[in-house]
Amino acid sequence: MGAQDFDRRLFDELIPLPDGTSYNAYLVKGSEKTALIDTVDPEKIDVLMAQLEAVTQLDFLIVQHVEQDHSGSVPAVLDRYPNAKIITTPKAKPMLVDHLHIDPERIVTVEDGETLSLGDRTFQFIHAPWVHWPETMLTYLREGKVLFTCDLFGSHLATTDLYATDKKRVYEAAKRYYAEIMMPFSSIIKGHLEKLARYEIETIAPSHGPLYDDPAFILDAYRHWVLDPPENLVVLPYVSMHGSTQVMVDHLISALADRGVRTEPFNMTVTDIGKLAITLVDAATVVFATPTLLVGPHPSIISSAYLTNALRPKLKYAAIIGSYGWAGKTVEQITGLASSLKLEWLDPVMCKGLPRKADLKALNRLAETIASQHQSL
Ligand code: FEO
């Protein structure tokens, strides 16, 4: 069940969705009871309610995650089935009351590992906090070996494909999704992956994007993104107002290429921040390149530093380059914005006005340092 949202272009009023998204819900009928797993964003409530017209009995509404793109239609479903109970985690219960004003009497909480029988089908609930809020859980259907994962393993991709058949397209969408939604919690996801290794899984059914009938495809991708060391790659968010910083960016990219280091530059005035986030999944080094606006970095570079800090990628090194007219506190402001990153800051290269030979030599030294550090990864 659920709805495809081909037209949506922003999530959380922040994240670009070039391929839309979906809000998947799943109806599971047992010999005695019937359960609905998750609902849909309120924008698509009519789609879900039309699907439920053929469903006369609903005993359980399993809420795996309280964020409104999955829970926003819960009140309408409860109204339609007055005897249905919500099944959720103890942490989710007060959140459902706060965010949706659900009657607490209609909520039953389940502990990690607890089971629920529908007669000839049995769910086991797996608490999995921080994928993507603190209250989240997964649901394992023993018969059929289906793992329902809500946000985890999802992709912002609207498609008529039920399963991930166009692997290349789904991989890109799932990686964008991981970068923006899951990467801040990668150390916790590591534990979830270990826990899931104990389950025999034939199908992974997320609540965004297509299902996976080849679970290894997405599990291996997550292991790579979460566990493997970063790559010999520099991500370079930049802005140039009058060309000086652009000269530095071009020189650094060339100097890095000469030393065997790949760079992905992003002009932050035009870039899709999802592409920047995807590159942060793999990169070992970030270089922020900025002109000085008044006495600090360009606002678009402030935004990129803030976002990088929030996403907590596997970066090992960072540097700042740029130009200024008379003075500035660019370096202090960017390092302050990215203070949560556990990495080594390399010497900045800031030049007054248009770069001179000495500035370009300093960029060569920065490229040399990055290449040498990457070799040790
Ligand atoms: Fe798809 Fe965290 O909601």
Topology:
Layout: E1 2-5, E2 10-11, E3 15-16, E4 21-24, E5 26-29, E6 34-37, H1 45-51, E7 60-62, H2 68-71, H3 74-80, E8 85-88, H4 92-100, E9 107-109, E10 115-117, E11 122-127, E12 137-141, E13 146-150, H5 167-182, H6 186-196, E14 203-206, H7 215-227, E15 231-238, H8 244-258, E16 262-267, H9 273-282, E17 283-290, E18 292-293, E19 296-297, H10 299-311, E20 317-324, H11 330-337, E21 344-345, E22 349-352, H12 357-375
Parallel strand pairs: 6-7, 7-8, 8-9, 13-14, 15-16, 15-17, 17-20, 20-21, 20-22
Antiparallel strand pairs: 1-4, 2-3, 5-6, 10-11, 11-12, 12-13, 18-19
The structure holds MU-OXO-diiron (FEO).
Can I get a quick summary?
This protein is α/β, with parallel strands linked by helices. It contains twelve helices and 22 strands. The chain has helices at residues 45-51, 68-71, 74-80, 92-100, 167-182, 186-196, 215-227, 244-258, 273-282, 299-311, 330-337, 357-375; strands at residues 2-5, 10-11, 15-16, 21-24, 26-29, 34-37, 60-62, 85-88, 107-109, 115-117, 122-127, 137-141, 146-150, 203-206, 231-238, 262-267, 283-290, 292-293, 296-297, 317-324, 344-345, 349-352.
Task: Give an overview in words.
With 377 residues, the chain is an alpha/beta fold. It folds into 2 domains: 226 residues, Metallo-beta-lactamase, Chain A; 144 residues, 3-Layer(aba) Sandwich (Rossmann fold), CATH 3.40.50. It contains 12 helices and 22 strands. The strands form 6 sheets. Strands 15, 16, 17, 20, 21 and 22 form a 6-stranded parallel beta sheet that branches. Helix 5 crosses helix 7, helix 5 packs across helix 9 and helix 10 packs parallel to helix 11. The radius of gyration is 24 Å and the shape is elongated. It starts with a strand and ends with a helix. The model has no long low-confidence stretch (mean pLDDT 97). Bound molecules: MU-OXO-diiron. The site of MU-OXO-diiron has 7 residues, from helix 2.
